[in-house]
Design a protein that fits this description.
Elements: E1 12-17, H1 25-38, E2 43-48, H2 50-53, H3 63-77, E3 84-88, H4 94-103, H5 108-112, H6 115-123, H7 130-145, E4 150-153, H8 158-175, E5 183-186, H9 215-223, H10 244-252, H11 257-265, H12 271-298, H13 302-329
Parallel strand pairs: 1-2, 2-3, 4-5
Helix pairs in contact: 3-12, 4-7, 7-8, 9-12, 10-12
The chain binds iron/sulfur cluster.
Iron/sulfur cluster (SF4) binds next to helix 10, helix 11 and helix 12.
Amino acid sequence: MLNFGNNQMTQRVFSGFRPTGKQHIGNYLGAIQNWVSLQDEYDCVYCVVDIHALTTLETTEALREDIYEMVLDWLAAGIDPEKSIVFVQSHVPQVMELHTLFSMVTPLSWLLRVPTFKEKVKMQPHNVNYGLVGYPVLMTADIALYKGEVVPVGEDQLPHLELAREIVRRFNSLYGFVFPEPQAKLTSFPLVLGLDGVQKMSKSCNNHIEIAAPPQEILERVMTAVTDPARRYRSDPGHPDICNIFRLHKFFTPERVDEIARECRRSGIGCVDCKQMLAQSISSALEPFRQRRAAVIAKPNYVAEVLADGANQADAIAKETMEEVKEKMKLLQRAKLPVR
Ligand code: SF4
């Protein structure tokens, strides 16, 4: 097992993902494959942020299953528990404690100006809960508890990380240095549009293809995709630059994109053929993933063991951090009674 103690030479990456069940190719291209490659360069801590999910979930019926399926996909995609800590946020409850302590050093005005809070208020006016306001504080606690130094983010998430840096800086200036200010590792996450060709690929829009989908399902899903709306007949020349099937070919059939673009423009290829080719490419690309997924499933309790081991490792770091925090804050620590 790796040594994730305080004296680590390598920088620590922290990243979390809400439990969304089986992952789709948008998740894979947008985040998971990046996480897999970061493992070779950093000590990585990958967390299923189930408490964050509670700020927007209407029901928790599927929560356990979603956590299981998501972690199963992470492991099948190449997240290696021998290299990275993989765990569930709520299994290390110190994060809630640190969240509370951070909330005492975070001006409310900082939180109310966060754009995503305003968006969420618009999206769920019937459920503007306290957790929504405190979301960035909990996110800061997630990173800081494990002394995360590097956080992979897209450009749109930079304001959140800046807020985390401000909270950490404020804590350090009030009580003394405990936390490194997390640095953004700017990553150009490709925007993967869904099969509707309009919205970002997501389960809630039902415009996705699961990475665990068998070939027949991939074909059926791809065949429903919207293409160039101006191409109504096979003889109409197409416009690959506005076609989402073409965008997906760039990921999955990169060696043939020039040919596809050319044939599309001169109506040498029909959309049905083009989609079948894409479905074939996606199926082939995901075949090793499906095999690894089946191998993981074949190991009884493997996912549970990974999560239990990950929680133990995360817990050890969290205990050290919280002791340091309480010492700096001059809180009277129960374990250190009596003091006089
Ligand atoms: Fe899109 Fe392919 Fe049809 Fe061209 S041929 S419009 S790239 S699906």
